[in-house]
Write a structure and sequence with these properties.
single chain, 372 residues, 3-stranded antiparallel beta sheet, alpha/beta, Deoxyhypusine Synthase, 6-stranded parallel beta sheet, 15 helices
Length: 372
């Protein structure tokens, strides 16, 4: 009898782990099955396919990742290597990232200490991360000060807002004699657009609201965010390349990233097929109906993922704080740096392409209705 096609996978026969093993060799040689297997597949997908020159990589961040130092240890090195082209993050990650850019301290702590005692001693806790309450006050003061600058007194997208913020964080970082401490500063330096899907849902948004009570004229326009993110994806495809999504966690940033394709296809009526590559690290289950756990196969039904590209979709069920350093170490070892795409500079150009294709689609739709 011929061997079943289901037995065509690689044989499970790993070599013994030895001292001095690299992360890449460990992942490729020892992560054989279960979510270790998915982590291996994810590292290989990212390094071998998603980092091809013509692929535009969008990153989403959910959960308190920057307070754990992952901005400095993993994200900034990948941005410098040209591995991340644009970002959608919770506002909290960007707020806590700013602590480091301002030289403020986060400390390792014990998650089982009484929070009543911590409150009495003015210590704030994010699970096992501790910091002084003054860190919040100092960061709030920083944002209120820069938001008062003349260049903020208008309507803008969150990408423009974060770009301006990153400029000031970079200035403070340099004044302190530091480098590589702030994700926002690194994104400013490399023209990586940074969006947040819920501008009011963080301490940054709270300070924007407080300044509005003083008559500050800064306004965040969500429609700009929706259209600019769609324009980035459309441009990636129309330029002869592909669009890849790298998702840590889920939540609103994941939806905001994936809704770019329904915005293009369903709402604007522009012909498209969905994102080409999908890699997610999550602890959310798909059977609860939440977007965080929704699989790439389910996303196909919405037009979010190109059905022909499902083999290039990986979901790994693990903690992002484990997956991100492993992925970064693997990719930085396995792939040469790419030239940064500097998409922030190209937003006006990409928006013009979106407007033209939308107008063409409207005209064609109107002609079709007239013929009917």
């Amino acid at each position: 009898m011929s061997e079943s096609r289901f037995l065509s996978g690689a044989r499970i026969a790993p070599r013994a782990i030895e001292a001095g093993l690299t992360v890449q060799a460990l992942v490729d040689g020892s992560f054989m099955a279960y979510n270790a297997g998915r982590l291996r597949e994810g590292c290989q997908l990212f390094s071998r396919r998603m980092l091809e020159p013509g692929v535009t990589v969008g990153l989403t961040l959910t959960g308190a990742l920057t307070p754990a130092g992952l901005g400095m240890s993993a994200l900034i090195p990948m941005i410098r290597a040209g591995f991340i082209d644009w970002i959608i993050s919770t506002g909290a990650n960007l707020y806590h990232d700013t602590h480091f850019g301002l030289g403020l301290e986060m400390r390792q702590g014990n998650p089982f200490v009484s929070d009543i005692v911590l409150r009495q001693e003015e210590v704030v806790r994010i699970y096992d991360i501790f910091f002084d309450y003054s860190v919040l006050l100092d960061t709030d003061s920083f944002f209120r000060t820069i938001i008062g600058a003349p260049e903020f007194q208008r309507t803008m997208s969150t990408a423009e807002f974060h770009h301006l913020c990153g400029k000031y964080v970079l200035e403070r970082q340099r004044a302190l004699g530091q480098t590589g401490t702030s994700l926002l500063a690194a994104c400013y330096e490399h023209d990586v657009p940074v969006y947040t899907s819920s501008p009011g849902d963080s301490s940054i948004g709270m300070n924007v609201a407080a300044m509005a009570l003083r008559g500050n004229r800064l306004q965040i326009d969500p429609s700009l965010d929706v259209n600019e993110t769609a324009a980035i994806v459309l441009d990636a495809k129309r330029s002869g390349g592909r669009s890849a999504v790298l998702i840590f966690g889920g939540g609103s940033p994941k939806n905001f990233m994936l809704q770019t394709e329904p915005q293009i296809q369903e709402v604007l009526g522009i012909e498209e097929r969905g994102h080409d590559y999908f890699l997610q690290f999550t602890d959310a289950r798909p059977d609860t109906g939440g977007l965080s756990g929704a699989t790439p196969a389910e996303a196909v039904s919405w037009g979010k993922i190109d059905p022909d590209q499902l083999p290039d979709a990986v979901v790994c069920y693990t903690d992002s704080t484990i997956a991100m350093p492993v992925l970064a170490a693997y990719a930085l070892s396995a792939h040469e740096p790419r030239e940064p795409k500097r998409l922030y500079r190209r937003i006006p150009e990409m928006m013009e392409r979106l407007r033209k294709e939308y107008e063409t689609a409207r005209q064609e739709q109107g002609q079709g209705q007239g013929q009917g």
